[in-house]
Amino acid sequence: MARPFTPKVITANALLNGDVVYFTANDDWSPMLCDAEVIEDEAHAQLRLLEAERQQAQAVGVYMADVINGPDGPEPAHFRENFRRSGPSNYFHGKQAELS
Amino acid sequence: MYRYNEFDDAFLAARNAQFRAQVQRRIDGSLTEDEFKPLRLMNGLYLQLHAYMLRVAIPYGTLSSDQMRQLALIADKFDKGYGHFTTRQNIQYNWPKLPEVPDILDALAEVKLHAIQTSGNTIRNVTADHFAGAAADEIADPRPVAELIRQWSTDHPEFQFLPRKFKIAITGSPNDRAVTRAHDIGLRMVERDGEAGFEVIVGGGLGRTPVVGKVIRDFLPRADLLPYLEAVVSAYNTLGRRDNKYKARIKITVNENGIDAVRDQVEARFNELRPLFKGVDQELLAQIEAHFAAPEFAPRDEAPYALAYANDPVFRSWADTNLAAHKAPGHAIVSISLKAQGQTPGDATSDQMRLLADLADRYGHGELRISHEQNVILPHVHKSDLPALHAALKPAGLATANIGLISDIIACPGMDYCALATARSIPVAQQIAERFDALKLEHDIGPLKIKISGCINACGHHHVGHIGILGLDRAGVENYQITLGGDGTEDAVIGQRTGPGFAYDEIVDAIERIIRAYLELREDPGETFLAAYRRLGAEPFKAALYPEAAKKNAA
Lengths: 100, 555
Prior knowledge:
Organism (chain A): Thalassovita mangrovi
Strand order of the largest sheet of chain A: 3-2-1-4-5
Oligomer: heterodimer
Largest interface: A-B, 25 and 30 residues
InterPro entries (chain A): DUF2849
Pfam family, one (chain A): DUF2849
Low-confidence stretches of chain A: none
Protein name (chain A): DUF2849 domain-containing protein
Region (Disordered) (chain A): 72-100
Number of strands of chain A: 5
């Protein structure tokens, strides 16, 4: 039996500064996970992934990441994505500094 | 130090101009990412978790003070004011922006540095003993040969599309400080009948399939080095697998074909190549050797050193751990620790880099080295200057007396930066260092190498750590496996796994249990951890690590 589809967001790095970005429902890219379009349907996910990958001038290394729906929007399902949305743990650099 | 000639300058300028145009074409949309990626990797530009990363080669680990100052300037101007020194004698900048990378490369070229072949399936930065040209136990300085290999391998048309990356390390000493047995080719200088030559080791490597390299030639005359290297890489280029990335390194080629079959192919190719090298390489080598002439080691009064050593316990502790024997009387090799307890192993701020450059000018003939153990070395310091040097290092957080001790930990960037990582390394290293510093046990424990990798690729050399730690992702949770008894010297040994791994919040306690068992079991304070492990085997340490299992077995 096929595994049930779990909620996902589309993420990548920005071409120019390499920053982690998330694909929004408006077809643009946001540095904030809470702005990401949460995709609940597999067919829609495939379509959105193609649309995101087409944005070669904005994003590099486009892929889908699992999320869990929380009260404040999507939360990363895996610790790797948790680091990506905040920054390294040894210095206060990256998103944790830029978005605070 | 090697000085670029007109050809070198023109080559680098042309290469940088090419890459500038390639970046421009990527940004204006003429190149897709698929087209651009191999081009950026050829120039050391990776895309990591949070940003791009630029890996700059420090050929054979040697830097001039001017080069170090320029690395500091780049850290300030284009990055976040620091750089990370790696286990392959590179420096990595963690936050460059794509449009600025061509400017960074031009700034590097101003001081004859580059990022060429720091990535991709080519011959990578040639690494060397970080004490080269200074060590008391050295037969000859290996760096002229390393420079010759760099020139030969850079843009070598036959070797730009190897089955996989290819790493060469070289040492001029019988005591191997360059981990030559864990490289695709390791070169160890040896003497036979008064003539210096190389023991050639092939097929070593760490990663997912750790292998100690095998001797393919026990004595290679120095003059035959380039044709022989070319023969080895050529044989690998032919025999190496391209169907499976994980079976593509030369260690697998050697294991699948056998060292004898590989040797036969290498010797056959060598016999073809040898006559084609008509001595130009040796003329070039002679020119390069002149660039590496040792500085004048003038004899001076050593009394200031003896006085400080007798009266200042902090200085004495530092001198006991951070100095190594120099070939010239009255001199010492100074290892400056980038492992202050709680700091990120291998990181230096731009201020620290500038201070190190200034101190190299003042006390060390303007020369610095970067070790694969992620520390900085001033190779030529007169002992009378050591008290002043130590005093200058202290306020900058650079006087930590821990070289070769438990907090002198190799750690890869791990999941704090690396896109390949499966777990974090840096915070584990920080916590272990802080734990034993707080316990005040570090100097009592004595020589001990802990090495931490955040994934199976083993950039942190965990397989050859006396205690190795490998961070994995087990069902979405960080998990750390421990190996014991590894050794990266000329007697290289791959460490053995102890058993099940430990969670992120258990790993420091687990290491402490191993250390307490060692302190309990050693014959006397002179018996190192590695010696005790070799005498006792893994069992007593496993019992300390897994007390529950030990209890069950006893019941």
